[in-house]
Amino acid sequence: MTTITQHFPKAEPIDDSDIVIDREIVIDGKLPRYDDLGAQKQYYADVAEMLEGALYHSLPGGLYDALLVAMMRRKVSLFAVRL
Questions:
Q1: Which residues touch 60 (CB under 8 Å, ≥6 apart)?
Q2: Using CA atoms, how far apart are residues 72 and 56, in angstroms rounded to an integer?
Q3: Angstrom distance (rounded) from CA 68 to CA 70
């Protein structure tokens, strides 16, 4: 197994009352198996929501926005309208 560690800048606090914590996201587990497609869909939605929230609250706004653009660009073919 290969482990890749990458470090990225975190967001800066907006004011003195704002706290931006360091965050570590570890991707190393196996996907659970579901017999029910609805349960699998809900699992993906829940984990995606947690990951998105972690990134939103940790990355600088411009980096978060650029990440969204890069992710949409990778999947843009899913939105193609066939004539």
A1: 9, 10, 11, 12
A2: 16
A3: 5
